[in-house]
Write a structure and sequence with these properties.
The structure is a single chain. By secondary structure, this protein is mainly β. The chain has 2 domains: 46-226, Jelly Rolls, CATH 2.60.120; 245-424, Jelly Rolls (Sandwich), CATH 2.60.120. It has 2 helices and 32 strands. The chain has helices at residues 5-44, 385-391; strands at residues 46-48, 50-57, 59-63, 70-73, 79-81, 86-89, 94-100, 109-113, 117-127, 136-151, 159-164, 169-172, 176-182, 186-193, 195-200, 203-208, 211-216, 225-226, 229-230, 245-246, 250-251, 260-266, 269-276, 282-293, 299-311, 325-333, 338-346, 366-367, 371-372, 379-384, 397-409, 412-424. The strands form 3 sheets. The chain has an 18-stranded mixed β-sheet that branches. β22 and β23 form a beta hairpin.
Length: 425
């Protein structure tokens, strides 16, 4: 059958309109879907945060189900790990984990792992593109042991941290200080500063500063309970010099300079920064008045996070009195005698009898041997003062007057990140 010229013209018109409308709808679809797809990708694309593990004491194991196990020893450089890696400490080891953005030294989170702890970093991600509105996320699985988590101010992009334990889940969206203890029976979570959401067995509670909760196995979180009390105020220097007193520099030689001391932001954290370059002895003291009766306290735990960046004297000098960092407690014991407990840290030199002693031989103080620490690495130190004084055979503390941080030597450079005296009544 032959179509008439008129019919052929109508068919061509229909085909033209079909092509025109089809092209319009395809163009419209592309105009809408491509920006949506691009925005979705920009919003959801992520990259891994930098997670670095260093041994604070002993040997720390790093495991991955598909990789060969590794180990990092105290004094060695930190090792980067990937999501899925587990960090293990034995009874005599401790570890420090730092998490920071890619290609930046700014700290997002610091994790202190104590002895007999197993922690897996399930996730540590940040948006790939600056235009993304998504939060940075850290997901940790604490199988057992003890963890202290420090979250400094992170800037404009929020950080969501989740800690999963065998008994429950803790979500943290605010900067602060958080502690966890996990065993087969329960999870204990304590908020020293900040806010946490605790959930287990279909129930949840919110914890704020100076509160804790206990999650029993197959149970629900307890109501907020009082936690250990920090006798140090502004121990992380987030409020600058508030509550702290700086003494004037003591410089041995009149022709030599004093040093520099201030609260500065280092790697995103407020830090007490002390530096001195010169010949001959110099020291500076920073003090906080406590004036607290602790006679009936069950425990007094002293905590310090710091870094020695530079030091010229070997150990702590020829009398052991010039450590780049000393920690001192001025107190009355339970017999009414005023005493000073002191502990020193150094990063250079070896103990040599008669030349570089491991204690201050000119100090009438309660003290133990100075601690050697790795130059340039953040370290954390913890001691139960009640146990330490009992070990040294002196009476217990009755009244704490003050705490001092002392930097001394010839040339030295020290950073103090945080100091605390945690008291349990």
């Amino acid at each position: 059958m032959t179509l008439s010229p008129q019919q052929n013209g109508l068919d061509r018109q229909r085909l033209a309109w079909a092509l025109l409308l089809g092209s319009f709808f395809v163009c419209l679809a592309l105009t809408v879907t491509i920006p949506i797809a691009a925005n979705t990708y920009i919003q959801k694309a992520t990259e891994s945060l930098n997670v670095t593990v260093q041994a604070n004491k002993g040997t720390v194991g790093i495991d991955h189900m598909t990789d060969v196990s590794r180990a990092v020893r105290a004094g060695e450089p930190g090792q980067q790990i990937l999501p899925g890696n587990s960090i293990r400490t034995d009874a005599v080891a401790s570890a420090l984990i730092s998490i920071s953005p890619p290609d930046e030294e700014r700290l997002l989170a610091r994790l202190q792992l104590y002895g007999n702890t197993v922690l897996t970093v399930n996730q540590a991600q940040t948006p790939r593109f600056q235009a993304s509105d998504a939060a940075q996320t850290i997901e940790l699985e604490l199988e057992g042991g003890r963890l202290h988590l420090s979250l400094p101010e992170v800037g404009e992009r929020p950080l969501q941290t989740i800690v999963v334990t065998p008994q429950g889940q803790i979500a943290i969206n605010e900067p602060g200080q958080y502690s966890f203890i996990v065993d087969n029976e329960e999870t204990q979570v304590a908020v020293q500063d900040g806010r946490a959401h605790v959930a287990a067995a279909g129930q949840s509670i919110d914890l704020t500063t100076d509160q804790r909760s206990v999650i029993p196995t197959e149970g629900t979180p307890s109501a907020p309970l009082p936690t250990e009390r920090n006798l140090i105020q502004n121990g992380d220097f987030s409020a600058g010099w508030n509550q702290w007193r700086q003494h004037v520099w003591d410089v041995e030689r009149s022709d030599q300079p004093a040093g520099h001391i201030d609260v500065e932001t280092i790697n995103g954290e407020p830090t007490l920064y002390i530096r001195r370059e010169g010949v001959g002895h110099a020291d500076v003291r920073v003090l906080q008045i406590i004036n607290q009766d602790v006679t009936d306290f069950a425990s007094l735990e002293l905590q310090l996070t710091f870094r020695i960046v530079g030091q010229t004297l070997g150990v702590c000098g020829i009398q052991g009195s010039e450590c780049p960092l000393f920690l001192r407690i001025d107190y009355d014991d339970q017999t009414g005698v005023n005493r000073i407990w002191q502990h020193g840290f150094y990063s250079v030199g070896e103990v040599i009898e008669g030349e570089t002693p491991d204690t201050c031989i000119s100090c009438a103080l309660v003290q133990s041997a100075h601690d050697p620490v790795t130059m340039g690495q953040v370290q954390f130190y913890e001691v139960d003062l009640s146990d330490e004084l009992a070990r040294q055979g002196v009476p217990p503390i009755s009244f704490i007057k003050s705490l001092e941080l002392v930097a001394s030597g010839h040339s030295f450079e020290v950073e103090v990140v945080e100091v605390a005296v945690m008291a349990e009544e």
